[in-house]
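Researcher: Please generate the 3D structure of the following complex. Treat every line as part of one assembly.
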Amino acid sequence: MKGIIFETFGGPSVLTYTTIDDPHAKPGEVLVRVHGAGVNHLDLDIRAGTSGFDVSPPLVLGREAVGTIVEGGPDARTKVGTNVVVSAYRSCHRCEFCQRGLINLCQNAIRPGIETNGSYAELIRVPEDQVYPVDDGHDLMALAGIQLSFGTAWHGLITRAGIQPGETLLVTGAAGGVGHAAIQLGNLIGARVIAVVGSAEKEAFVQTLNPWYVINYKKHSLVGTVLEVTRGSGVDVVFDGVGGRFLEDGYSAMHRGGRYVLYGAHGGESTLVNLIKVFRSYGTLMSTSGWTEHDLARVLNLMLEKRIRLNYEVVPLEAASNAHRRMEQSVVVGKLILRP
Ligand SMILES: [Zn+2]
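Model: Done. Output below.
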C-alpha cells in the first residue's frame, strides 16, 4: 500500500510518501481501507518530536480515519464492506478509567498515530471493537475529522465545563478544527459565543458560523473588547487551546467564578501567570483532553441531523507534508482531510 511514513523527527519534509507492506487483520481485528484521514495539530507535534508522548519512528502518522472494512480476522463479526469511523483510541476496557467510560484517559491505550501506525495510509489495521459503523446519510469525509474537533469540543464544553444556556463563552483559535466546533456547540446550547481569530480571512470564515461576536485580536484589544461587549462582566467560560501568554488575558476576560477550560498550548507550553489574578478570579481552571464514546455518539447524531458541520478541505495523501506546512503557517480554516 501507499502511505506516509517518517523515519526521524523533524520538519514537514521528513514525511515521505512511499510503499509500505500491506497490513492484514489478525484475530480480533479488521482491516480498513481509508477514505479520509484527518490532519491534526497533534500530528505536527508528533512529527517534530515535541508532543510529549513516547513516539518511536518509523511511524505512520494519523489519529483519525474513516473508511471501509475490506478484511476481517478469523472471528470478525462486522461485515466486509461496512463503513466505519476508526477510533482515535484503542482503550483496554479494563483499567480504572475505561471502567468509568473515560477511554480518553486509558492507562494502556495503544493509539493510532502515536503508539502504533495511524491513518496516513491506504490501509489501517484496527481491533474490531475500536471501530464505529457509520449510519447511512453521513458525509464520510466529514467523519474523518469529527473526533479531535467535535469530540474534544463536546467533552470540554458540555461534559467538563457544563456550559449552560445564556452563558457567555470565549473560544480562542476559533477558526481551527476544535474552535469552529466549539462555536457551533456553544450556539446549540444557547450560549453567547465570542470567537477569537487572528486574521481577516479567519474572521470571515467564523462569521459564517454565526457567533455572537468576533474579535480579531491582531486588530483589537481582546480583553478590552470582551469587557466592552459583556458590559464589564467578562465571560463565564473560556475555551482555550492557545495557552502560553494568552492565559493571563483569558483570566482578565473571565467573569468572577468562571471556568477556564484548557485543551492545548499551541501558543506556548510554559508561561508566567500572575497568580493573584488567578486566585482572586474565584474561577475554576480545568483541563480537558479527548472525548468518551458517549460524547462521540452525541456529535455523530448531531452531524447526521445536520445541526453541526465540519468545515474541511480534502487534499491528496501524497501532499501530507504540504498540509503540515500550511498548518504550521496557521492559514487553515477548519480541517484538512487527507485522501489516499
Ligand atoms: Zn483502559
